[in-house]
Amino acid sequence: MRRWFILTLVLVGLCLPYVTHAQLKAPNVTVDGTATLYLAPDQGVITVGVTNQASTAAQASQANAAAMQKVVDVLKKALDGRGRLETAGYHLRPVTTYYKETRRSQITGYKADHQVRVTSRDPQALAGILDAAVAAGANQVSGPHWGLADPSQAERQALAAAFADAKARAQTLATAAGLALGPLQQMRTGGGVAAPVPMLRSMAKASENTPLQAGEVQVTAEVSCVFALLPSGPGQRK
Predict the structure, then answer these.
(1) End-to-end CA gap in the chain
(2) Which class does domain 26-40+151-231 fall in?
(3) Order of strands across the sheet that contains 217-231
(4) What is the reported pLDDT for 238?
(5) Could you say which architecture CATH assigns to the domain 43-147?
(6) Which residues of the chain have pLDDT under 50?
(7) pLDDT tens digits for range 67-76
């Protein structure tokens, strides 16, 4: 029994270096693939608000509420169910004045700020919505920001294109090395972020149609892949 045990250990010891050596000899190639898609936005976002100042906090708050309600009513009508409104911020703060004679600051009034975020599913309508808000009394405007309502489909398309780029790179390297491209062994993804491309924005008077030029939305994806490399010859994968 002991002889069989020793013989088994010797055979295992002989096989292990062979397997390890074969694994180390298996060639592969690591490549990165990237893809960038430029898509037309399907929604636009602006932030509009009203600022009021009065001698007391109550007066500032009441005046702001009345003015903001007019803006909100107009925005709802302009959106016509093709977007949404949400509060972006509300602030009520004292206004102070510094007097050199006494070297002290004194509260001389209160300022109320109220902003709403306007999301339109019709980017072309955003200019008219902006003008309507200003005409209704909005005295704060920021934006626009262009985007995709559901970027997941675009991100999947970018990932597929990035993988195709990585595979093409691997094929080029395999061919240059006189080998055939083998199966995919590992893959790691990255990117997939949707962001607006810098766009031209111009503003005009509220009585005119504000010319907003919608930019494109940039969606990027990155993949890192490891492909096996096979001997090139008859019967091998090309």
Answers:
(1) 51
(2) alpha beta
(3) 28-39, 217-231, 179-196
(4) 46
(5) 2-Layer Sandwich (3.30)
(6) 2-23, 193, 197-207, 237-238
(7) 999 999 999 9
